Amino acid sequence: MSAPAPPVLEAWRVSKRFGSEYAVRGVSLTVDAGTAVCILGPSGSGKTTFIRCLNHLEEPDEGYVFVDGEPLGYRRTGDVFAQVRRRELPRQRRRIGMVFQQFNLFDHMTALENVMEAPVKVLRRPRSEVRASAGALLERVGLADRADHYPRELSGGQQQRVAIARALAMEPRLLLCDEPTSALDPEMVHEVLQVLASLVAEGMTMVTVTHEVGFAREVAQRFVFMEGGEVVEEGDARDLTTSGVSEERTRSFLAKVL
Fold this sequence. Notes:
By secondary structure, this protein is an alpha/beta fold. It has helices at 47-53, 89-93, 111-121, 127-140, 156-168, 186-201, 213-219, 248-257; strands at residues 9-18, 21-31, 36-40, 62-67, 70-71, 74-77, 80-83, 96-99, 174-178, 206-209, 222-227, 230-236.
């Protein structure tokens, strides 16, 4: 009998300090294939720092991150971990897609060109092949008719959907989303959350930092509540109600945002 596949993501006792202060302290998280996890918590709770540690945009001071069983930022030989050179990190990150609070699109490129950029430059795939797949991704996020538009010609919600298509262009095993709707006007939030929900329904493994408790409850399988850089509570996302959670700090947070 073959050994079971490792989790898509495993963070083991990850900590990050800025100066002498811990922004994240000893956080562990395991995410199996096809699972969606939402990380919630008040501002300054360490959510964004933690998700940035998951793809080494912030290098953890302690702990390790594994993607498909392979350590990120390290080369493992038995029980010995050797840090890789910085130029090797992009290759390791290929399995991880990232959607940021700000859209970070290239202003001088069309929507289609933004989606094509990484597969052409990083994966060295032929432009003709990438053009077809990028067009399909824009259609997937409902923007096939905006392929030739520049970011300045798109609404905030449309720009974020282009950013999602761009992350998917690398065919990631894991999609990380850092408060993907926080920079959007309220009427544009739904269109982005709808795209993310469709990806989860299709089986995408996803970790999302969000204040959208309704989205977490309806779309995610699990939630993690952080405060003070630590995990206070985690559980079934369907229990994200003031009566469904067990910790007072989680209940207090939900009472304020629901």
